[in-house]
Please model this.
Amino acid sequence: MIKLARPFFDAREKEAVARVLDSGWVMQGPVVAELESRIADYCGARYCVAVSSGTAALHVCFLALGIQPDDSVLIPSFAWPSAANITSLMGAIPVFVDAERVTYNLDCDHLRFQIDRAVEQGGHPSLIVPVHQFGVPCDMEKVLVLADEFNMRVLEDAACALGSCYNGKHTGTLGDVGIFSFHPRKVISTGEGGAIVTDDDDLAERCQALRNHGDLKRPGLNYRMTDVQAAIGLVQMDKLTEIHQKRAALLRTYVDLLGHQCGFSLPSYLTGDNDLFGNTVSLQTLMILLDLRINRDRVMAYMADREIEAKPGSVAGHLLAADRQETPDSGDPCPVSTQLHRQGLALPLHPGMTQQDVQRCVETLMEAVESESS
Model:
């Protein structure tokens, strides 16, 4: 089976874990501190706080930023629902922003519209959560201008984007605070795990306390990373350049083979003047967009029958929220996100693949698409 994603592990991770087990100290300790220092140095951030998952990182940041019930939080609809879930759990109001077609990131024109609308309705827009979708940087210059204009905080969801840069700065370091995920689908993996980066002294102190049961001033949680996970993370950081290079080589092959086919489209940032084959973007997921006449479920089933795992790229949060709330349909507020939700198809991409694996994926995809077209 060619898996959609797979961690790039070998004997080095096993040896690192064995050293931690032999030390007798397996909970959060010196190895976690070493990983935090390594990530902070790599990203150019003053502080890094390691936690148990990317979602835990989001939760800690929401708490540290002081998000209150009935605050409006601006979130891209086309994104994994972690930020929307945390918003709802805290009693705040998720306000979904549509995607734009080039990068699949939030549309900054629609972001302004949604902020204006929230203000007009008497809301309190307090936080923007730009997601660097699949590792592609969001247009942070426009996001920061809007945040400054409306006195809002910015929490970057860079879960997929370790190693990606925007105007020479690492994703996660452009807003007030940023997070990464180390889930097995991400650029590097610790099994589960995540990290928070910031230059803000007070936010760093709050995050450090909140992930470790709090302090005398406020309660906290147990979102600690273990030294076992951190040992894996340090080896993964050693491999990061190699991981980026292998992913880029696989992407080149995908684009060469898929660029002139029918039945779907590649993201435009992979073609022409927008290509990502430089050193500033680490693409976690390759998502193509199937034509409306193509049934995605049948394409995925066809590929699965031939031992190739392909999955939906992500989900549209505004559709999930509508399902949960059973609200009547009053027109689609995020039509691009809806299309990406229904027709986006993620193809296998991970450093353990070979060029022959890519060719097999493409050939099988084309067979599936052709069977749908006939």
